[in-house]
């Protein structure tokens, strides 16, 4: 899905002048889902930075890697890091669920994924299946 196609599904402000207003709040919240475990830090974050920049005029993007700069040196990110609260299994799941539950759109990058979590199906967020 291209950024232009995604923008069709999100509310967009018609006034370019309003979007330039520093007080303007973007109307959409987008969760950037995609591979993390097994990826390098750059592999897990670069596409998310690009997507957030491309969508900046119409959305705020939530990155599950935010606040995890301590993983910068990792060549292969592990499933969890017990020494960091938000990188323990419970911390990861809790924040991911909270983020997805309040988003208007979940943008999934499945390229390079070796496993896919479908844990949000019970809340109806992802419909319980992947196409």
Explain the overall architecture.
This protein is α/β, with parallel strands linked by helices and 131 residues long. It has one domain. Helix content is 30%, strand content 11%. It has helices at residues 3-8, 16-20, 41-55, 89-101, and strands spanning 28-33, 59-62, 105-108. The chain has a three-stranded parallel beta sheet with strand order 2-1-3, covered by helices on one side. Strand 1, helix 3 and strand 2 (59-62) form a beta-alpha-beta unit. Mean pLDDT is 78; it is low at 8-18 and 125-131.
Helix content: 25-40%
Strands of the widest sheet, in order across it, are 2-1-3
Mean pLDDT: 78
Q: How many β strands by DSSP? A: 3
Distance between the termini: 13 Å
- What is the number of independent domains? 1
Rough shape? globular
Q: Could you say which structural class the secondary elements and strand pairing correspond to?
A: alpha/beta
What is the number of helices? 4
Using only C-alpha atoms, the radius of gyration works out to 16 Å
Largest sheet: 3 strands, parallel
Strand content: 5-15%
Task: List the secondary-structure elements in sequence, H or E.
Answer: HHEHEHE
Question: Uncertain runs with pLDDT below 50, 5 residues or more?
Answer: 8-18, 125-131
List keywords for this structure.
131 residues; three-stranded parallel beta sheet; 4 helices
Question: How does the SSE layout of this entry go?
Answer:
Elements: H1 3-8, H2 16-20, E1 28-33, H3 41-55, E2 59-62, H4 89-101, E3 105-108
Parallel strand pairs: 1-2, 1-3
